[in-house]
Amino acid sequence: MHQALYRKWRPQTFDDVCGQDHVTSVLRYEVSNNTLSHAYLFCGSRGTGKTTCAKILAKAVNCLSPKDGSPCGKCAACVSIDNGSSTDVLEMDAASNNGVENIRDIRDEVVYTPSSLRYRVYIVDEVHMLSQSAFNALLKTLEEPPSHVIFILATTELHKLPATIVSRCQRFDFRRISLSVLAARISYIAQQEGMELEPAAAERIARMAQGGMRDAISLLELCGSARKKIDVATVDEMMGSGGREEMLAVVEAIATANYDTIFSTVDEAVSSSRDLTVFWQDLISVYRDLLVIKTTSNASHYLDLTDAELAKLTELAELFKKGTLLAHCHLLEDGLFAMQSANAVKRMIAELTLIRMCDPTLDTCAESLLSRIERLEDAFAAGAPAAPTSSAKKSAPVAEHIESKAKKPSSPVAKEAAPTAVARNNVPTPAAPKASVASGTAPAQTGRVLHRIRGFMNCVERVRRENVMTASFLTDARAFLDESEQVVIQLSNPFAEIMLGEPDAKALLCRALSPELKRDASTIKLLFEVTDGQTESKDTVLDDLLDAVNGDQ
Fold it and tell me: Is pTM beyond 0.85 here?
């Protein structure tokens, strides 16, 4: 009967384990010096050698003639463990045996001495799947087992284990295996199995394995099933991937808004019956590399790429800003989750997401807004306006109308204030409203210039967290700074002015304003005014964006 390659080439000694020297060196030392722990915890991602090391350790502690801490593989103890005839080494899958009764059986058995070996070893795989009652039943036995018992627990999800279990074990973290180690190992296996494997194809398989040796060997076996030369094209064909070059072409098409290339690439992937989820994961991998290049000074240290690939990615990274890359990663992540839950419409999800990535105006998430603001900042820093989008072109007549009104003030007071206001905000400064005399507040000063406090809605939100009723009186309020740095709060009705004039309400509002004004709350002076209902509506996020673009501080 055929045996899978990952089982056939499973390491039999600690020397054969690849990429986990920090674990195997300690285990060898403990076996050689007879300083064994009563319980071990092996944690790490799939295919990194947890169960393999557990079986090697079980043989090593019972081996009659160990070699440098590793089992000899030839004595009666090693042979009986390898062929499964030994009753003293028990392997249990906690995913299917997770009840408290299974743990009670172990607890009742540990009191008996081994029948033929030195130690009775319990290997519990996927231990995080045990129920809470099963963990409780295991606690005491795990802490103080008999001297002839050793527990080896293995898990891929350490965070699901109770702290009481983790603290009773000697913990080893299995790392993802590096690309170079994976490629060297599968090249050796291919040579021994008579497969013709190109070095570039070995690297491609190692990259797809994502640090797991078992996945790498399984992919090698899949690609070698046709018994022909294994090159990069063969690997891409067997895995349903379009290759690195196709992904780079898609990224370049996104940067240049080349919709024809995008639709033709997706159509080709669907027509060739490739899995769009694999296509999407390859695209996410490229964007991760772009982010590394964009944010680090030594990208080659963090990327497993050839010099040519690194040069091409560096060239593509120049086409994007950091904010744009973050926005695209957010869209790719959402698209991947949508594809995993909606198999029938994967193509539509892919096409719609790629279109949104080409045009940031089609997406309103925070990351896309950040990308658009980043473009505006760069354009203003360069002294030239940013390229207008279609929506910006439509709003141009409105902006021209506002600018013409700003240049032609209708009153002497407005004429005096207009130059400053237009220079700062490109919109007319709001006329100073009439102050209410009923509450004893000072009247508005004729001809004064008020500067809007950016982020006032954040202040209202801070007030709401402490006092919902007080915040309700600020719903339609607007906040300004006058020439004396006094905060002018414009309200829509006298009752709101009376309620906000209370000492507790004023103190709360000063504390809320302090982060925005970067001033101590005790130094903030408030002036409440009741408007005549002719002023603009309340502040919005759009007001803050306009202020940021126009440099209003």
Answer: no
